Amino acid sequence: MGTDRRIPLLDPVQLDGSLSYDRDADRLTFRWTLKPRPPASKAEIHGDSDVKASMKADLPGTYVVTLRVFDGKVWSAA
Q1: What is the pLDDT of residues 8-50, one digit of tens each?
Q2: What's 32's DSSP letter?
């Protein structure tokens, strides 16, 4: 779990899931989501299925990014 942080509007935020692993060394699938976000925000995650992704906050407010990882058998908890 990452730490909360304050970021300037429109500054890119780098999201990194590279510390995720599978005990059986199965290939991992990544799914980044952005919920909630401020009303009227058009922000989106770029590379939402990549191990590393990014986003930009376009309006003041709270953005919550979640990463789920799939090993071909089960999804991680959100």
Answers
A1: 999 999 999 999 999 999 999 999 999 999 999 999 999 999 9
A2: E
Torsion of CA 40, 9, 54, 45, to 10 degrees: 0
Encoding tokens for residue 23? 């005990």
Q: Are 71 and 77 in contact (CB under 8 A)?
A: no
How many CB atoms sit inside 10 A of residue 63's CB?
Answer: 19
How far from 61 is each of 35, 43, 44, CA to CA, in Å? 12, 12, 14
- Please state whether the predicted TM-score (pTM) of the whole model is above 0.85: yes
List the structure tokens of 7.
């970021």
